[in-house]
Design brief:
- With about 100 residues, the protein is an alpha/beta fold.
- It has one domain: 2-Layer Sandwich (Transcription Regulator spoIIAA), CATH 3.30.750.
- Helix content is about 35%, strand content about 25%.
- The chain has a four-stranded mixed sheet.
- Strand 3, helix 2 and strand 4 form a beta-alpha-beta unit.
- Helix 1 runs parallel beside helix 2.
- The chain is globular, with a radius of gyration of 13 Å.
- The model has no long low-confidence stretch (mean pLDDT about 85).
Length: about 100
């Protein structure tokens, strides 16, 4: 099944749109996990919803942005808070070790 997820780069911001599910991740992962060097921001304002595969993609992209001194995230797609809580990720998509033992 084809995904409706898209991305574009504008300045130092990666803009994602559509549904970030397993189908989208399969299509987007190869493109987004290489060549993100100039990026510092992640815009999720037009992402409709995500599943656990989408969260994995976002976490990887956020980690790469953090290593480049960026990592600002705007937008909260449906499902993001619940998945972050389930996987013990902070709002910046970092692993929140302090809650891992609770």
């Amino acid at each position: 099944m084809a995904s409706n997820a898209t991305f574009r780069v504008e300045g130092d911001t990666l803009h994602l749109a559509g549904v970030l599910d397993r189908d989208a991740v399969t299509e987007l992962w190869p493109q987004l996990t290489r060549g993100l060097s100039p990026l510092r921001q992640l815009d999720l304002q037009t992402v409709e919803r995500i599943d656990s595969a989408g969260l994995a993609l976002l976490s990887e992209v956020a980690a790469r942005l953090h290593t480049q001194g960026g990592g600002g995230i705007t937008g909260t797609p449906a499902g993001l808070h619940e998945l972050c809580a389930a996987y013990r990720l902070s709002p910046s998509l970092d692993f929140n070790a302090s809650s891992a033992g609770s």
